[in-house]
Write a structure and sequence with these properties.
- With 851 residues, this protein is mainly beta.
- Helix content is 4%, strand content 56%.
- The protein contains 6 helices and 51 strands.
- The strands form 10 sheets. The chain has a 22-stranded antiparallel beta barrel.
- A hairpin with a 2-residue loop joins strand 9 and strand 10.
Length: 851
């Protein structure tokens, strides 16, 4: 069984810029960001209405289209360079992401798309896998921190990320083209064209993306294949306003992404000098008089010499390949009457993932092709209808009430490769080494591949909720806001079937599902949000808020044991999570609004938070042959968590020719008293750092398959407590129609102790510097920029495996087709990841009309 690893990358981030931003018209135009600009303000839709970001009583980081273009942010993960304390890491298999904000992680392998962070596209909830694939022709990205749900689609404890594609402009023809060429095979072309069909009534916008690069840029010493990533997407939008009181829109996007990649490794001897890989062999009790005439396979593993993290190398003989296809449909409509607005937003997302994952990254069996073949198809549909006021009710109240419904499901067809070695029974007459009357088992094959089919039939999930929020305004300077949402979560899953295919399942011959894999639930929860805001004047506002959140029960995916124990199941299937948050903040502007200072402090507690181990925990796996073997899995534990944090932002723009912005975050998350799944063969309650043998596991655990250890107050996330960013830009006129500029972006992260059970993965503090220089038309019609990312080519190890890669082998008696033993072979290498390399490039942008 291949080790399933969860890697949390540290991220650093940036404050909202003081430069131009794209406003959004919430009540009247729910289909995304508009194209109007205001050079002095950033307008957001955090509370379903257009508001200056400085007037919103919560922490909002708005990343405008101008910021995206200025900093050459070509993929959505790079948003983490301009949003503090946010981590977005797409999973290697393409299904979702491992993300983090405000001290807790979101892992799709645990919670599916019921994450700690909810993503929205065109105002509709979507899976992170869709959003993270591409970023082009975007109006604005808003990152809202803290519990969400009484105003916006779904309940999430850490926040939400809304992505607003540019909307068609009803009155002016326009468009833009942006092209980037850079090192490492990078080519990125984006375009958007806007055409009014009926002036001020109907318009169409078409946008597209073609992106090529070398993916994670890890090459293999055992393959001539180069890593590669290709993404193509096309989006068509229609906007109609046939009457003053009636509006509507439609968006269709098709996206295809293909990649091949290698997992980076390093020599384990870099961590443990003198390390020599071993073999952990175990034989089942054999009948008396039975002899095994040949031992384990004679060291088939390959030694490719010393590999260091800075080499950016893999040893795999073949890459992981991944294809992803998405079709997104979004529609909306709004009707105004009697000072109110009735708004509907709907969406449908179809997705398909096909991943071939190399399970022998350490090249234990070079001649074999040990791959996991996974095909996942899913669909998701959302509907939201809400009523909200346009004119303030009784001159005092704003309100939003509505209904939300989401349905969807997924089907997974999986083939899990395993290595077996065949033995044939011989007698004394056939081999004189065998005593008379005894039987000998003699190896007649090397390691061969035996695929095991695994099937997860289509599941049916549904979420329904009614919500409402009221804001009372007192005297123009004080407001009190309160909201409720009643949620019902339902899920009907048929479970996971080992040794099963869609055909055999349809024929009714797959038997019972794996123990504990069904994860059926029907639960409901009432959540709330209350905030109090007071503005002392136009430049100083303080606020306090409290809120709750809830997520449905979860089941971790990836442990395919055929006979899990109750303890094992309890660390895969977890109950509903609830959380409660408190926050106080200040937003202020000084020196005639040239200086902005914001400060936020928050406290949050969780019950039954699904904490997933950073490293694979050693346990006793029962494979498809019914044979026990040593394996690793990132087990999950339902734990209470406490999070405290501070976020601070300072922006200074003394003139139109210079501005500087800095933001820092501090987050301290702790797991309170709880029992975590762990490796503990000496039974002292402290997680082991050594690699145990199967015999040690069996002796220590008895009838169990894994151990538990006290949490001892360890962190609930694997990111540093401190992170931040500084950005500065200076410009000067070159001619009456052309400006020159120089801008810099410094992102940094503090030191972190990633996993207390891993002695090798502590990361020291470091920073990355990006520089941009160029010229542009003073009116914004064109721009040419040279850039260098990671100016000083800083190389920092961001994650390290605590043990060498290993691959298992099952011994099979070909005389009766029964397994009688297993062996686990260690590799010379272990997994590692590092910061991206230095990149030089050039970007050109041309625009006309409405752009």
């Amino acid at each position: 069984m291949r080790v399933l690893r969860t890697i949390a990358f540290g991220s650093v981030s940036l404050a909202a810029l003081t430069t131009a931003a794209f406003a959004q018209d919430t009540a009247s135009q729910p289909s995304g960001a508009s194209s109007s600009e205001d050079a002095d303000t950033i307008v957001v839709e955090a509370r379903r209405r257009d508001e200056r970001v400085q007037d919103v009583p919560l922490t909002v980081n708005a990343v405008t289209s101008e910021t995206i273009e200025k900093l050459n942010l070509r993929n959505f993960q790079e948003i983490t360079a301009v949003v503090p304390g946010l981590s977005l890491t797409p999973n290697a298999n393409g299904i979702g992401s491992t993300s983090s904000m405000r001290g807790v992680n979101q892992d799709v392998n645990v919670s599916g798309e019921n994450g700690t962070i909810q993503f929205y596209f065109n105002d509709a909830p979507v899976g992170s896998n869709f959003v993270l694939q591409a970023m082009y022709d975007i109006g604005q990205v808003e990152v809202l921190r803290g519990p969400q749900g009484t105003l916006r689609g779904r309940s999430t404890p850490s926040g939400s990320i809304t992505v607003a594609p540019r909307r068609p402009d009803l009155s002016e023809v326009g468009g833009s083209v942006v092209g980037t060429l850079a090192e490492h095979g990078v080519s990125n072309l984006q375009f958007g064209i806007n055409v009014p069909v009926i002036s001020d009534k109907l318009a169409v916008r078409v946008a597209g993306l073609a992106d090529r690069n070398r993916g994670n840029q890890i090459r293999s010493v055992n393959s001539d294949i180069k890593p590669r990533s290709e993404t193509e997407s096309l989006r068509a939008s229609v906007r109609a306003e046939p009457l003053d009181w009636l509006r509507g829109g439609f968006v269709y996007e098709v996206l295809s992404a293909k990649s091949r990649s290698f997992d980076q490794v390093q020599s384990f001897s870099n961590l443990v000098p003198g390390f020599t890989p071993g073999v952990d062999q175990s034989l089942s009790p054999l009948p008396p008089g039975t002899f095994v005439l040949s031992g384990p396979l004679a060291s088939p593993r390959r030694d490719n010499g010393i590999i260091r993290p800075k080499d950016r190398l893999s040893t795999a003989t073949a890459p992981r390949t991944l294809t992803q296809d998405f079709n997104f449909y979004g529609w909306d409509a709004a009707a105004d009457f009697a000072g109110q607005s009735l708004i509907y937003v709907g969406s449908h997302l179809d997705s398909k993932f096909h991943a071939l994952t190399n399970q022998d990254v350490g090249v234990t069996f070079p001649a074999n092709r040990l791959f996991q073949d996974a095909l996942t198809t899913s669909d998701n549909e959302t509907h939201e209808i809400r009523l909200q006021n346009i004119d303030r009710v009784a001159g005092m109240f704003d309100y939003v009430v509505g209904y939300f419904r989401q349905t969807g499901g997924a089907e997974i067809v999986l083939s899990q490769a395993a290595s077996i070695r065949g033995y044939f029974p011989l007698t004394n007459a056939q081999n004189p080494q065998i005593p008379a009357g005894a039987t000998g088992l003699f190896a007649v094959t090397g390691a061969i591949v035996n695929p095991t089919p695994i099937y997860i039939p289509p599941s049916k999930g549904k979420e329904e909720s009614f919500f409402g929020n009221v804001v009372a305004h007192f005297g123009g300077n004080t407001e009190l806001s309160a909201g409720l949402r009643q949620i019902q979560f339902k899920n009907d899953s048929q479970g996971l079937f080992i040794g099963c295919t869609p055909t055999t399942f349809a024929a009714g011959s797959c038997g019972r599902p794996s123990v504990g894999s069904e994860n059926d639930y029907d639960v409901d929860k009432l959540i709330y949000n209350v905030s109090l805001k007071h503005s002392f004047n136009d430049d100083l506002m303080v606020y306090a808020m409290t809120g709750t959140s809830a997520r449905p029960p979860v089941r971790a995916v990836g442990n395919f044991s055929t006979a899990p124990t109750p303890l094992e199941v309890s660390h895969m299937t977890l109950p509903m999570e609830t959380s409660e948050s408190y926050e106080i903040g200040m937003k202020s502007e000084w020196l005639d609004k040239k200086l902005l200072v914001n400060l936020t402090a928050f406290h949050q507690t969780f019950k039954n938070y699904p904490f997933r181990a950073a490293q694979g925990i050693y346990y006793i796996n029962v494979n498809s042959a019914g044979q026990q073997e040593r394996a690793q899995f990132n087990f999950v534990s339902a734990v209470p968590v406490r999070v405290n944090g501070v976020e601070a932002e300072v922006t200074y723009a003394p003139s139109e020719f210079f501005n500087i912005s800095a933001l820092t975050t501090y987050t301290d998350s702790k797991i309170k008293s709880a029992m975590l799944a762990c490796t503990d063969v000496n039974r002292d309650g402290v997680p082991d750092t050594n690699v145990p043998t199967l015999a040690q596991l069996q002796a220590a655990y008895g009838g169990e398959h894994l151990a538990e250890c006290p949490s001892n107050g360890q962190s609930a996330t694997f990111l540093p407590k401190w992170s931040g960013t500084v950005q500065a830009e200076g410009r000067m006129p070159i001619t009456d129609s052309m400006d020159g500029y120089l801008r810099g972006l410094v992102t940094w992260r503090g030191k972190s102790e990633v996993d207390p059970t891993n002695p090798f993965d502590d990361v020291g503090a470091y920073g990355l510097v990006n520089l941009y220089a160029g010229v542009r038309d003073a009116a914004g019609a064109w721009e040419v920029s040279l850039f260098v990312k990671n100016l000083f080519d800083t190389l920092k190890t961001t994650s390290v495996d605590s043990s060498p890669l290993n691959t298992s082998l099952t011994y099979v008696n070909l005389g009766n087709n029964r397994p009688f033993g297993s062996a686990s072979y260690q590799s010379y290498y272990s997994g590692v990841s590092v910061t991206p390399p230095q990149e030089f490039g050039i970007t050109a942008r041309f625009a006309f009309g409405s752009r």
